[in-house]
Amino acid sequence: MKHMLILLALGLPLIGCAQPVAHYTARVTSVHDGDTVRVVDQHGAKRRIRLAYIDAPEMDQAHGVASRDALRQLIDQQTVQLTIHDTDRYKRQVATITLGGQDINLAQIQHGNAWHYRSIARKHQDKADFARYRQAEMQAQQERVGLWRSSQPLAPWTHRRQQREMRGDYP
Asked: In terms of C-beta density within 10 A (0-12 exposed, 13-18 middle, 19 or more buried), how is residue 124 classed?
């Protein structure tokens, strides 16, 4: 938090920083879906968190509810550590969440509850972490766990694009 205040004081932007700008501890108060949670930090501030470098199925997609429920099992009402990497266009903090030393973002991939969001990760994720996340996704696919039980799971970014096209919305 101290580093974030220094950056703000200097007038430097937080969005797009390659290095994490903040670390803090918070309690998870709710799990919205397989890659979005709400937390309350040690000062009582409520925050929306988007798990970094993963993309989970949307709630109206196959495996969407199961992905959310798996994340709930891992961290709901738990005190977790967050490493903030960015803030997204919805003003959510984009973070890596750890609990007891376990990378929860990576766990979602390992259990077949999310894709590695390579198009974003390729530009911003640490190379060693990128390799671990990519390997975890390939192993989940090979073992056909979670969303990979389906012969042709639909990636959430494809699902969202199809939904926009059906509504006539174009970015």
From this structure: middle
**Annotated catalytic residue: which of 50, 72, 89, 161?**
50
Active site residue 149: no
58 is catalytic: yes
Chain position carrying tokens 């709901």: 76
Q: Which string of DSSP letters, residue by residue, matches 61-103?
A: STTHHHHHHHHHHHHTT-EEEEEEEEE-TTSPEEEEEEETTEE
Nearest in space to 34 (alpha carbons), one of 46, 23, 15, 49: 49
pLDDT of 94-144, one tens digit each? 999 999 999 999 999 999 999 999 999 999 999 999 999 999 999 999 999
